[in-house]
Amino acid sequence: MKEEDKFEASTTHRRWIESQGIPILSEFSVPNLKEIKVGPWERLGASGAYVIFNAIDDILDAYILELDGGGTVKPERHMYEEIVYVLSGRGAATIWNEGGPKRTFECMRGVCLPSRSIPGTSSSTPRRTARPVSMSYLPRPC
Predict the structure, then answer these.
(1) CATH of span 3-136
(2) β-strand pairing of 24-27 with 46-53
(3) N or C: lower Cβ tally within 10 Å for the chain?
(4) Does the pLDDT of residue 140 top 50, yes or no?
């Protein structure tokens, strides 16, 4: 293992990703996000996988979710903006800030979730699986 690989493998963010217990794909590029294997992700209550783009270190954070028809993910607070692109199926996102009104909108392509919001995502098609990919520019949990 090269010295720079040892440093990268030991970052706090990388250890957090590994603690999630979901598949991790670490590549320079990914030809097809629809074919990445996902596994149970207890924290979000859905299936998911992390994608680490080796060319840009910990700057870009990406994960894929797979929601059964009518399924939802547990809400989480975001410190940074997050871009969500729906790879297949259809979904809805509900966002809110503490003490503020909830807003729900349908996601069929892409959406940018604002920083410091609390999003919850669901599959809006009862019989069809939705598969969104989410990206943010810094580690997200707060």
Answers:
(1) 2.60.120.10
(2) parallel
(3) N
(4) no
